[in-house]
Amino acid sequence: MGFTTAFILLVSAVALGRAQTNTGEATYYYPGLGACGNTNTGHQYVVAVSFDFFDDFPYVLPLTALSPICQHSLTASYNGNSITAAIVDKCEACSYYDIDLSPVAFQALADLSVGRLYGVTWSVN
What we know:
single chain; 6 strands; 125 residues; alpha/beta
């Protein structure tokens, strides 16, 4: 396989990863220093994706120290409500398509007292 073919396949994989709609559970957490290297608060619309989803996100050349997913946000929807949040961290306890939202982002979808949302749909922007 030549360089051009490999590059086209890589770009196609990135495009598919962004366009895919995922379904999982959502919880909330209190952000701090995240895997993307920034410190965030619970008052910002931020999200942690699962450890595996974070690490599986396709790299685009040139490689950097931080995952390219750190340059993206995701849009999540639940029960007729939608939010957009910056991807800033990994969620160690999340299953592959689960997400962990900051409190303010979670509250835009449901009350914090719910604790866990089932059937949340989301995609990387």
